[in-house]
Specification:
14 strands; 7-stranded parallel beta sheet; disordered C terminus; Rossmann fold; 410 residues; alpha/beta; 2 domains
Length: 410
């Protein structure tokens, strides 16, 4: 079995990993870390939850000099939530080393971010829009950047950040080391790599069959207007773990969350109109088990490490087959089994057939039967029980390999 101690990492970093119960690298870490430590540019293709954050964070921290002030490493991410998550992982590795991490993202005041940059923080994790704001105001310089990462590049560039990313890269030294990580590598990602990476090593990780998520796909056809009752029955039958219920609109998930909370479910919404403070609080409550049912738009379908999600429910169909796959990927993680339930009313059938065509797969459909009466189901739903807190940032970043229970922090 390969161990982190086999890599040319500093003993301090290996000790921090061991203290967090992280001993054996995942496949993407095994392939990417030696190349990045050797100074190679790299394109890494790996699914969310494969441990790619540590794959680039360990070489990043090792490459930075705590004696030098100013931005030496830059990680660009598409969302505020991912910025907070990645920043937490890097800060855990850099703790007590003298390296400081600045998070730059919208929804927060510029002042504290400017103060972090003024004191000379060496590592910056940023969303493109907020980083450009700081560049325009002159509160940050990228002339010393020696290590640059584009994380979730397929999502970031597909969202229209391409021109912003190009403007940012133009302000970094051409001799920098660059790593690009992506769940998929479509044409626009490949073109970005060709323009900005120097003779990159390409690492494509297909998890071993035993590591692939075990996700049971269940599709129910319900009568028109029957989704609310079906949803409550599904939540009531949930034996353990937590649930993410996906809707398409911010208004719908907010309204559903309020309705479920009024009925006694430990439910909360996660959607784009919330303040950053509110979004971070909901994510923290869900990770800790204080929220058992998360009503969410596609904002929760990618880029968040959320352990213990035993089922997702497609209350409303996503816009594309790709988003259907990303939603299902929220469950069946870290070696656990998972369940993805899709509810179809008659008006959904045309779009559902299109999703199946794109996926090249037909899913068996079942006619919904209510089963237990709702009043009876509500007597002991798991969604109303207290739950234990979840793992810390570093453990969540490690990817798909679980360590023995005695090493895990709860």
């Amino acid at each position: 079995m390969s161990l982190f101690s086999a890599f040319p990492l500093s003993p301090v970093l290996v000790t921090r990993l061991t203290a967090a119960g992280i001993v054996a690298p995942t496949p993407i870490q095994t392939e990417a870390i030696p190349a990045l430590l050797a100074g190679r540019d790299l394109v890494g293709q790996a699914r969310t939850g494969s441990g790619k954050t540590l794959a680039y964070a360990l070489p990043l921290v090792q490459a930075c000099d705590p004696r030098s002030k100013g931005v030496q490493a830059l990680v660009l991410v598409p969302t505020r939530e991912l910025a907070v998550q990645v920043g937490g992982v890097i800060a855990g590795l850099a703790d007590r080393s003298g390296l400081r991490v600045a998070l730059l993202y919208g929804g927060r005041a510029m002042g504290p971010q400017q103060q972090a940059l003024a004191r000379g923080d060496q590592i910056v994790v940023a969303t493109p829009g907020r980083l450009l704001d700081h560049l325009r105001q002159g509160s940050i310089s990228l002339r010393q950047v020696r290590y640059l990462v584009l994380d979730e590049a397929d999502e970031m560039l597909d969202r229209g950040f391409g021109p912003d990313v190009e403007r940012i890269l133009a302000q970094t030294p051409p001799e920098r080391q660059t790593a690009l990580f992506s769940a998929t590598v479509p044409d626009w990602v490949r073109q970005t790599a060709e323009r900005h990476l120097r003779d990159p090593l390409t690492v494509m990780v297909d998890p071993d069959p035993e590591d692939r998520p075990a996700i049971e796909q269940v599709v129910y056809e319900v009568r028109e207007g029957g989704k609310p009752q079906a949803l409550r029955t599904l939540l009531g039958r949930q034996a353990q773990g937590s649930t993410i219920v996906f809707g398409r609109t911010k208004h719908r998930v907010k309204r559903l969350a309020l309705q479920l909370a009024d009925e006694g479910y430990r439910a909360a919404a996660l959607q784009g109109n919330m303040s950053q403070v509110a979004r971070e609080r909901v994510i923290a409550d869900f990770r800790a088990g204080r929220v058992a049912v998360l009503l969410a738009t596609n904002i929760a379908a990618r880029g968040l490490d959320l352990e213990g999600v035993s089922q997702i429910i497609n209350y409303e169909l996503p816009e594309s087959a790709e988003w259907f796959t990303h939603r299902a990927g929220r469950t069946g993680r870290m070696g656990r089994t998972g369940r993805a339930v899709t509810l179809l009313e008659p008006a959904d059938l045309t779009q559902w057939r299109q999703i199946e065509r794109v996926l090249g797969q037909r899913f068996p459909r079942h006619t919904w039967e209510t089963g237990l009466p709702i009043a009876e189901v509500r007597t002991t739903p798991e969604a109303r029980r207290p739950a234990v807190a979840g793992p810390a940032h570093l453990h969540a970043a490690r990817g798909g390999r679980r360590q023995p229970e005695r090493t895990r922090q709860r």
